[in-house]
Amino acid sequence: MRSVLVGSQKGGVGKTSLVAALGALAARPQPGRRVLLIDGDQQSNLSKRNFGMPGDGGRDLYSTIVLGEPLQPIRDVRPGLDVVSGGPALAMVAGAAANAAAAGLDMASHLHTALDQVNSLGEYALALIDLGPGDVALLDAVLAAVDYVVAPHREDEADLDGVELLIKRILRARRDTNPTLTFLGTVAFARDPRATARNASLDAAVRELLRGSGVEPFIAAIRYSPAVARDARALALTPQELIAEAEKATSARISMLRRRRTRGQQTEPGRRLGPPLDDENTLWARPEASDALARDYLNVLGELLERIAVAEQVNATATGASAG
Ligand SMILES: Nc1ncnc2c1ncn2[C@@H]1O[C@H](COP(=O)(O)OP(=O)(O)OP(=O)(O)O)[C@@H](O)[C@H]1O
Ligand SMILES: [Mg+2]
User: How many Å lie between the centroid of ligand 2 and the Cα of residue 60?
Assistant: First the structure.
């Protein structure tokens, strides 16, 4: 099992959206190919909003991190996809971290041990971890435990500060708790594919930030697609799942318009072919937009897995060389 933190010290940069969509795409209902998601956010956006789970308020994850209890994921939130839910209980991690040494707790090793236990079951190929912004006690516990880190950012200059702070934390974790922790790169999130010059300038700023580290920004990016993002959270569906729903909604809309026409009712001129406003399950996303966004996530997933494979090759060569 490879474990990956999708992290940033900055809020609202796409961490949760990436974990949800990549996790659902990577999950395969086959032995040894399951995916585990860990929602380490007090707000539990991932478990509650993206997957519509009631969850346990973060109690299970709190017990793992603070007390060293095993993880107990909720099974089959989607086929092949299990989730440890987040929630307000995680607010207590910071207090526990402050008193851990006095209480004789080695919090840095708890999540690591729990992930090793899960790994020894041999069920999972991948674990993706989501965190809320700014929760440094949790971040350090996760950085002590995971194999890899990926950092999304949007266009705001401050997003790059979030990446920079995270890199500093990664370097500290490598020194103190997790010497093989590997930073895989940055992912541009909510990017306008047509703004090529602006994107190139942002990429240059990211490259400058990463200079000397040997790490490159991801080539694959997630496009700006607010309607799909809104529908995904409102209906607790992934972009991939939204394609079919949006197709259904489109055909329902077309047949409604046909019925109106045959009854002699006209849509007002210039009014966009929008969904009926009285329907609380209104879908705003067009199927093509859901499809395009789902393909972006698939490309990012492909690049993520490639980068993991390359990192492992480099590690194996280094280990072989030092053994030789
Ligand atoms: N492709 C997209 N285009 C535009 N907006 C998007 C897209 N995908 C998601 N969003 C929106 O961007 C916002 C931030 O996304 P998300 O919650 O994934 O970020 P986050 O880093 O997890 O935030 P937080 O730090 O608050 O946990 C959300 O409102 C989400 O609906
Ligand atoms: Mg989030």
Answer: 19
Closest CA to 59 of 69, 51, 50, 49: 69
Q: What pLDDT is stored for residue 324 in this prediction?
A: 63
Q: Which CATH superfamily is domain 2-229 in?
A: P-loop containing nucleotide triphosphate hydrolases (3.40.50.300)
Residues with beta carbon < 5 A to ion ligand 2? Answer: 15-16, 45
Q: Is 41 in the pocket of ligand 1 (CB under 6 A)?
A: yes
**Cβ(238) to ligand 1 under 6 A?**
no
How close is the Cα of 256 to the center of ligand 2, in Å? 37
CA of 13 to the centre of ligand 2 (A): 8
What is the whole-number distance in angstroms between the Cα of residue 139 and the centre of ligand 2? Answer: 13
Report pLDDT for 223: 98
Looking at residues 26-47, what average pLDDT do you find?
Answer: 92
User: Hey, where are the domains in the chain?
Assistant: 2-229
- Atom from ligand 1 closest to the CA of residue 233: 31
Give the whole-angstrom CA distance, residue 135 versus residue 105. 19
pLDDT tens-digit series, residues 230-240: 999 999 999 99
Taking CA atoms only, the protein residue closest to ligand 1 atom 16 is 14
Beta strands, E only, the chain:
2-6, 34-40, 74-78, 81-84, 124-131, 148-153, 182-188
d(CA 84, CA 142): 14
Q: How far apart are CA 260 and CA 317, in angstroms?
A: 68
Unique residue bearing structure tokens 């990017």: 191
pTM (whole model) above 0.85: yes
Comparing CA positions, the residue from 192, 245, 218, 311 lying closest to residue 22 is 218
- Of 6, 15, 17, the one to substitute when testing ligand 1's pocket (max ligand atoms within 8 A of C-beta) is 17
Tell me the C-alpha distance between 136 and 94, whole Å: 8
Mean pLDDT of 201-213: 94
